[in-house]
Amino acid sequence: MKMNKNHWYARFLRGTKGVFRGNPVLGAGLALPFVVVAASSLQTAVGLSIGALLTMLPVGLLIPLIMQKIPEQFRWLDYPLRALIAALFLMPTRVIVGAISPALMDSVGVYFSLLCVSTLLFASRAMTVEEQRLEKVLLELTRLWLGLTMVLLLVGICREVLGNGTLWGKPLTWMKIRFSAVMVSGLGFILLGFIAALGQKIHRSVLFVCLWIGKNGRTVKDKIVHFGERPPKENKNKISGEIPEETADHEQIPEGKEQE
Amino acid sequence: MSVNERPFPHIRSEERSPLMMLDTAIALIPPFFMACFYYGVRSLAMGAMTITAAICANWISSLFNGRGIEWWDASPVVTGMIVALMMPASIPFYIPVIAAVFGILVVKFPFGGTGNNLFNPAAAGLAFVSVCFGDQLLSYPVPLEPLPMTVDEGIKLVQGPASMLKMGAIPTISVEQLALGNFAGPMGTTNILVIAACLVYLLVRKNVKWYVPAAYLATVSCFAACIHHENITAGESIVLELVAGSLMFVAVYMLSEPVTLPKRPMAKVLYAVTAGIITMLFRYYGVAIQSAVFALLLTNAFSPLFDYMAERARVLERRAIRENE
Question: Hey, are the CB atoms on A180 and B132 less than 8 Å from each other?
Answer without folding.
Answer: yes
